[in-house]
Amino acid sequence: MDALTDLKARYLTGIAAAGDEAALEELRLAALGKKGEVSLKMRELGQMSPDERQTAGPALNALKDELDAALRAKRVALADAALDERLKAEWLDVTLPGRPRPRGTIHPVSQVMEELTAIFADMGFAVAEGPQIETDWYNFDALNIPPEHPARQEHDTFFMARAADDPRPPHVLRTHTSPVQIRAMTAQGAPIRVIAPGRVYRMDMDQTHSPMFHQVEGLAIDRDLSMANLKWVLEEFCRAFFEVPHVDLRFRASHFPFTEPSAEVDIRCSWAGGQLKIGEGDSWMEILGSGMVHPKVLKAAGVDPDQWQGFAFGMGIDRIAMLKYGIPDLRAFFESDLRWLRHYGFAALDLPTLQGGLSR
Length: 360
Description:
By secondary structure, the protein is of the alpha+beta class. It has helices spanning 2-17, 21-32, 37-43, 50-89, 108-122, 136-139, 178-188, 227-241, 295-300, 317-325, 338-344; strands spanning 105-106, 126-127, 133-134, 172-173, 192-201, 212-222, 249-256, 259-270, 277-278, 283-293, 309-316, 346-347.
């Protein structure tokens, strides 16, 4: 037993004096490893008489537990000491002024998408999405656009490459988000109320046109909808979007293959002093196209035109963003000029709401 007492004293002293993890691990292996002194003594128990084992066994187990506890306590103490040293080295004077970090802003197009989504959601419209690469059928045929229509020519539409011997019509970069309406009606049926915002592509490029731009289209199908319902929806949208108490809309007869009757929609405005003001003045400005959904479009989407009818409308998101926020050149939307983005951008956390204001 004197040997165990000396063994315990020696290792406890060594553990207390250990200065790092490596020294501590060396002591653990020397005492409790497979070939450690305590482990070897545990193996000698099999050679002892029953009376000797009854005395030596508990003493060896107690020694093993005590050394193990001392090792764990020393390991924690070493870790705490290392943390204290690191904290002293990484000390920071929190009274110093903070360094400004670069701030990101929300692009006006993204902001306007959020604004119009909030407005139409309040009127019961859901958001529908679809692919930007569309089949010829979804982009043209299902929308009653005839083969001879100018939109189906290469000078107006981006056609995807295909093998020369492929008899199928080529895919296209969608020229409008109307295909999303077909997909939504096909999947959901009627009644339905959706808007379809997203990117569209056309072969055009100048101060007010871009080969890629953003559009939102709306669709409402029910049993007894009329142009009067369409007019109310558009008036409510314009009043909320331009944040004015009153708007006047003017419907002019037009032609779109997918609506009948069709109408271009103008909004009353003034340009006094070179500044656009919506809802007042003697001028009119075209902002969107609309109409009642053509029966052939309903039939193509699997909706019975004898039982259901509805209206559709579409407008350029970039265009209404330019009107609302006084942005003179469409091309600036896509130039990634940080100065422009900082000037026209919106704070990331200022989400538009009808109650709190759209463009805070």
